[in-house]
Specification:
With 364 residues, this protein is α/β, with parallel strands linked by helices. It is built from 15 helices and six strands.
Length: 364
């Protein structure tokens, strides 16, 4: 039986989020306009730097210590044959993260980004204590047979994501790339997207890690069965999340809310991360203040999700690896833009500055 979590729990979280600073935003725009280059010429990267300034409340901030946090969890729906591989792969990748050998670790090393793995609910725990154990349970239930988790478990996972942001901020991290690992989680995400976006399962479901035609049909059928059996309420995001989601998705939802509470920018990765950001927005609309888009996933529902969140992705590279790799790609771009933001001004060069009134620029 699913017990409903009182709205007070979410209202309390919402009350902890302060709005973006209009003063810091204006100061950051003015600082950009003083840099010796054409106004607005770094496009979305300038927007992101201004967005971070407004979030942290100052035009002067740091991006010196970035992290990528990878939330790992298993999903019972794998029993329906919706994935090429079994749940043992989730643990195997987590162990690779612990050894700093996974795909995201290899990419992050080149950019000086620390990768932090978290067990949100794997069936098999990681071998190394390097993976932070925050498991809500040892995997979720099969959504084709009933709810994935209770609402209490969903809220605990959200709270865990919030606490992880607080921990990382306390460890000195300035910006966090979000990522996940969990066999079957494109199925849970597509089920969530189908309900939250009011779109047929076949329109929001992709091949994930590379399903065959038959595998894709099984995946769509599993999603349709899960929705029919669980009757999720689209007007209650927590109900939808608990019935169709995963501990990784719930944790990522908390990560975005935590970013807003603790004033830390959180980078959205691909489809699953974006879906989690959408749930965060549906639960607490002001949580979008912490979000930065990285790339546009190849999964079908991503564009609809990003439109609702209100963000555009600067990287259009057809990335589909997962593990937070797309979000990690944004960080070097941001740090280069940030270097220019703090670079040579028109006043230092003796060149006349552009007049912002004569140039289409960022909205103040």
């Amino acid at each position: 039986m699913i017990t409903t979590v009182p709205n007070e729990a979410l209202q309390e979280l919402a009350c902890r989020i302060e709005p973006a600073s209009t003063i810091a935003r204006k100061a950051a725009i003015e600082k950009w306009n003083a840099v010796a280059k054409p106004i607005g010429s770094l496009g979305m990267l300038e927007d992101d730097i201004v967005r971070i300034a407004a979030l942290v409340g100052s035009e002067d901030f740091s991006l010196a210590k970035p992290a990528a946090i990878i939330l790992c969890a298993d999903n019972g729906v794998v029993a329906q044959g919706i994935s090429q591989c079994g749940q043992e792969v989730t643990c195997a990748v987590a162990n690779n993260i612990a050894r700093n050998e996974s795909s995201v670790c290899t990419m992050a090393k080149t950019a000086g980004i620390d990768v932090i793995g978290v067990d949100m609910g794997m069936v098999t725990p990681a071998e190394s204590s390097v993976i932070r154990n925050r498991a809500i349970a040892r995997g979720t239930a099969d959504i084709t047979q009933g709810p994935a988790m209770s609402q209490e478990q969903a809220l605990r996972a959200i709270q865990t994501g919030i606490e992880l942001v607080e921990e990382l901020k306390g460890e000195g991290y300035d910006i966090i790339a979000s990522g996940e690992m969990g066999i079957g989680n494109t199925t849970t995400s597509s089920a969530l997207a189908s309900v939250l976006l009011d779109m047929p399962a076949k329109e929001v479901t992709g091949r994930g890690a590379g399903l065959s035609d038959d595998g894709l049909l099984r995946k769509i059928a599993a999603i349709e069965d899960a929705i029919e059996i669980n009757h999720p309420n689209p007007d209650n995001p927590l109900d939808v999340l608990s019935k169709l989601g995963g501990f990784d998705i719930a944790g990522l939802t908390g990560l975005f809310i935590g970013g807003a509470i603790h004033r830390v920018p959180i980078i959205i990765d691909g489809f699953i991360s974006a879906l989690s950001a959408l749930i965060a927005k549906r639960l607490i609309p002001q949580s979008t203040v912490s979000m930065l888009a990285s790339h546009m996933s190849a999964e079908p529902a991503t564009q609809s999700i990003m439109r609702e969140i209100g963000l555009s992705a600067p990287i259009q590279a057809q990335l589909r690896l997962g593990e937070g790799t797309g979000a990690v790609c944004l960080i070097p771009m941001l740090t280069m833009a940030f270097a220019l933001y703090n670079g040579t001004s028109f006043a230092q060069t003796g060149i006349d500055a552009y007049d912002p009134n004569l140039v289409k620029t960022l909205e103040a």
